[in-house]
Amino acid sequence: MRKNTWLSWSSGKDSAWALHVLRQSGEYEVSGLFTTINTAFDRVAMHAVRVDLLRRQAQAVGLPLYLIEIPYPCSDEQYAAAMENFMARARDEDVRCMAFGDLYLQDIRRYREERMQGSGIAPVFPLWEMPTRALLEEMLAGGLRACLTCVDPRVLPAKFAGRELTLELLASMPSATDPCGENGEFHSFVFDGPMFARPLDIEMGEVVERDGFVFADCRLRGTVA
User: Fold this and answer.
1) One domain, residues 11 and 118
2) If you placed Cys at 192, which of 46, 166, 199, 222 could pair as Cys (CB 3.0 to 4.6 Å)?
């Protein structure tokens, strides 16, 4: 029997590809997505993606979406309480695993494992330690399409915000940039791929700098800003 699994869904390429890999594995039954959102802005933290786009993504991949609401700013205690409540809900739903699209940052993996220790729910990392250049090539060859919604201007010029992620775009980035942006160089929003029943018709809007990062507003085409 496949393990009932909920997937951490950032709206970006890594979580989307993790869903694709899990569905192909035969070991896991992904039955839901979960995302932490900032209640002050009604957007995904860091990715800055609108909640209505999250819902459209969930519809396109055919899964329910569970939102974990946190305030802004959010203390460690507030975040821990929100996650503890969510874990309790997952246990009530007989969830056996929670999957994450992390690639190689040991401190992040360790943090997740420590938070889930003793919960009865096992953490799963389907993309762990895959070489990031090869992984990105696999994603793009497989039909995944994503745009950059956030860049860190300390390592990546602001002009990259709002651009579609392609191998050509990657080639124009500084050489030290991780191909998947795993060190926080950029964050993305997926609007098409093999995990989607249909693509999302999106357009890029305003680009702003806030809290030391550059954000490009992604929205459904024709949506009022």
Assistant:
1) yes
2) 199
Helix/strand/coil percent split, the chain, to 5: 30, 30, 40
If one counts the domains in the chain, the total is: 2
Higher pLDDT, 73 or 157: 157
Q: Are residues 146 and 120 in the same domain?
A: no
Q: Could you tell me if 44 and 17 are in contact, meaning their C-beta atoms sit under 8 angstroms apart? A: no
What range does the domain containing 195 cover? 142-220
Q: 147 has which bridge partners?
A: 164, 189
pLDDT for 45: 73
pLDDT at position 144, please? 98
User: Can you name the residues that pair with 207 across neighbouring β-strands?
Assistant: 216
Element (H, E) at 152: none
* CB atoms inside a 10 Å sphere around CB 33: 23
Q: What is the dihedral of CA 20, 22, 27, 31, to 10 degrees?
A: -100
| Predicted TM-score (pTM) above 0.85 | yes
Residue 17's closest CA among 214, 221, 116, 165? Answer: 165
